[in-house]
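Pasting as-is:
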Amino acid sequence: DVSKALDSIGVKASDEKMNGGEAEAMDVDKDDEPIELDLDSLTFRDGSHTMSNKKCVLPDKSWRAMKKGYEEVHVPAVRSVLPKDEKLVPIAGLPEWSHAAFEGVEKLNRVQSKMCDVALKTSENLLLCAPTGAGKTNVAMLSILNVLGQYRKAPKAENDMDVDDEDDRSSNFDLKSFKIVYVAPMKALVQEVVKNFSHRLKDYGVVVRELSGDASLTRQQISETQMIVTTPEKWDIVTRQGEGRAFTQLVKLVIVDEIHLLHDDRGPVLESIVARVIRQVETTAEPVRLVGLSATLPNYADVATFLRVKPDKGMFFFDHSFRPVPLQMQYIGITERNAFKRFQLQNEICYEKALGQRRNGNQMLIFVHSRAETGKTAKAIRDLAVENDELSYFVREGTATQEILREETAGVKNADLKDVLQFGFAIHHAGMAREDRELVEDLFADRHIAVLCTTATLAWGVNLPAHAVIIKGTQIYDPSKGRWAELSPLDVLQMLGRAGRPQYDSEGEGIIMTQHSELQYYLSLTNLQLPVESQMVKTLPDHLNAEIVLGTVQTIAEAAEWLSYTFLYIRMLQNPSLYGIPNAEQTMKEDPTLRRRRLDLVHSAACLLEKSHLVRYDRKSGALQPTPLGRVSSQFYISHPSMAVYSRLMRQNMSDIELLRLFSLSGEFAHITVREEEKLELAKLSGKVPIPVKESPSEPSAKVNMLLQAYISRLKLDGFALVSDMAFIQQSAARLMRALFEIALRRNWAGLAKLTLRFSNTVAQRIWWSQCPLRQFNNVPEVVARKLERKGDIEWDRYIDLTPSDLGELVGVPKMGRVLHKLVHQFPRVDLVAQIQPITRSMLRVVLTITPAFQYDIDVHGYVQLFHVFVEDVNGENILHHEVFSLMSKSMDTEHDLVFTVPILEPMPPAYFIRVISDRWLHSEAVLPISFNNTILPAKFPPPTELLDLQPLSPSVLGEPALVKLFSSFDDFNPIQTQTFHELSKTDRNVLVCAPSGSGKTTCAEFAILRMLTTNPEGKCVYVAPTDDIASPIYDNWRSRFGSILGKGKIVQLTGETAPDLRMVAEGKIIVSTAKQWDMLSRRWRQRRAVQAVSLVIFDELHFLGGEMGPTIEVIISRMRYISSQQQQEEGVTPMRIVGLSASLANAREVGEWMGVPIKSLFNFSPKIRPIPLEISIQTFDQNSYPARLMAMAKPTYNAIVRHSDGKPVIVIVPSRRQAQLTAIDIMAYNESHEGSSFLG
């Protein structure tokens, strides 16, 4: 079956690379224009509830029964039959160094034993489909040990294998060379995995850390971590930002847990990250192993293809018979329409089932879907038991259990739990106090509690199995959709996984209560008949935008190729009609790889992105380029509809009322609606929130606005749905505000940037701007904060001057004085001093000195504090410069200098303002005005020398045949050489020639040398270059050319040794030197005749005056000018001539005046005038970290080579030797993956 499935997709078992011959066919033909599709109509309306199977076949011995108000379906447990020859792998049979990971385990179970060899001893990609509780975690552990084995150092001694010393064992592994990523769908699951693996891998020195929504890691922590456990969304953000790419290169193993999540609304995120891994492997040719762990599903072969698993080696499927405890299922489809009767009926069924279990002495878990419902259900069942006088089944009279429950009830805090606990019932949810939750867990584990009503958190976080599990109703309120929606399949399978206790039960019971219309869906789900489908189309534009921003997709053809790596493509091949492909059979015949369809899909997504201003899409060439808005969207995970709203409605001078209204119109909240029963509470709320809401409370945007303000104000809400909506809004609020801040920054809007930064901190801290800044510390009592807020006459800035006793007196609590004084001094403050220097009339250099003026405490401030440095114009409207300043804890006591340039606006304003604002702390702000009252701007630069339209001179103008022969390779001199020829070869004046590189300035110097040789036979010429690298090629060139005229030994290069150098200067005619060497020789020029005899000095690359060599060159030129002036006063001595060569300079006239060059002899040509025209394109990158920035440049470098080189040689200039090697490898890898050939012809 498997091979048939794969063959139908066109993947041979041995074929690793699915789209090998496809790349060359990817160019879009002109007559093959893509069609724009309506992506909305192609999305599955039911999302994760999509059911593509038409009917559901139940196992033998299943039976149905119709009862009053509901139908019941019973499916018997699948019992496993053990083959006689099946052997379990003992842990002792594994390599000795791996035993520490399986502490307390004697042998692997059936599933693990079958997979042991492949998981541990090979690096094949794996897909494991097995029921919950089949021991998938240990398979993950075996694949982790495989990576550890690859990086295990050779043992030092023979007995080294047996060393138990932890330090020794961890030092046996090269822990810096690899990283492992474990992707788990839920935060609760992430924490469980971290706890489990940290304990089991500690002997190997492996550090396991969590990376999820609210647990970010610093760069330092990431570098110290070997195993990162993360949620799909967080890993997507890390890999889609260039910042993370520096360490994603080290990832050698990616484990994706619960990969059947592909069917869920969050599935596209998994598709995106798996596709990214596979493409990285193909591009860099560095293997990354993919391991998928999944519940049992019918189309596992498709998932295996998606993960690039070889069916004969890495694909393992285990059905329900491999469950450690077989599961008998009951499905109850309620037909009752009346809501109140339905609620009663559900409670009666729960009671009936619970009673049945208690008669057999079994415990039971009842899963409900809200916290309030746990208490209601427990009380309803207890009341029915009292009514029917059957309480003794739940807790027997006079037993130890009854006594224990009575005793424990006294200490319980939760009112609902107190009410039911003594009767053998209990509740459990995340809103209870920790002591209550732990008490319930312990009592249930000790079998004192008969029935436990709980929310889904218990299924994910705490492993408390029971004999029977009821899922009471399958609808849960989903704030992202703004309505009640069906539970995700993931939650249902996880809850059913709690049925049956492995050590005690021979079988478990699972009971699902749902609406009758949903019965078919849950029967399909739990009986292996619900194929996993792709939900990618729904969020295709957002994921495509992320790839465009990342630089992996730069044309529409590349986008279509990227789509071929997704699960969507594999499912489209298998079931074309389900995915909206018209005339499926004919289309598949004509286009077996569905290339046209993929082009249509990505074209439609690109058009949507273009409408939202997230990308620039050139339909002619198919090129895709990200915009600043697109980068913000990708970085902050914001949907394109939201970005379109922001782009349309953001204005420069928004008030806080307008900003909150804009926030409430975000696409993320499009599904939030106002229900009839909420209107009254929302109307009350509108009077309590501090910032007025202009819309009517019945408007959804007003509801979002008020709930955000209620969250910040910490107001208590009544309605369950309102609380859920508020939690949903709060999850996105800080992220959306940060995105608005980034957009304001990129548009250089100062007022809005400050307002959005203030609001993002207001949301994060839950403190209003008008409240006391000290509320941002955790240990300030509410009473004290309120008292400080009443003292409005004392400004916040003055608190720093108050003594502890003053502060104590201020709040009327003398004891608090010292604490408040400490907090005031810990509040982040900085002192600013700035020095300004106009570099040109339009450019100002600012040196800003930032001095921290607070007491740093790592517990309060962390290891680093970020500050935003803004330079604003005089009206405070525009940002002229922005950068982020990081204050490290270790450099707290030093002054920090920031050097940056800002433009000087015309006409010159009276002042600018430098504003330094903390990234996380409200009210932490310092402002420094920069006045321009006494600033004197430099004079305007004269225009460059005009290039005259002259007849080009030929070398024959030199007259002497021997001299003409020097330029035998020239037909004519170029325009710059022609224009400067007369001044250099017919006069003895000092000359300065400034022209772009490659303009033939060295030939200009040669004109001056020929003038000296013909007019002054005794003369000597010294050529001075800043470095050896420039001087040596010139020496080699002149020795071969001038040597034929002057004879041997007349062209010399200085060595840096004084005595030999003086001898060479005395004997030589043309002396080639570096600035340092000539500086040493010419210092004692009065005693050195040879130096005085020099009649021509040529200074090359004079633009180095502004660099490190500048002072040396400056000193030499000044010295030569002085020697020349001294020679002018002596009779009969020809003064020294100075010729300067440089790139084009802005202030060439000033340099020329200093060198004694008359205006007529000064040539400063525009940088645009080149013999060969130069086209410059600049591409900027906004990655902050250096390695990440260089990595982000790799693909654009390759693209630039392909676009511009046209098969000719290319030079790539990089910052260091190591980078040269890395860039070369990157370019070769990209070329290999795109062209499949080398750069050699």
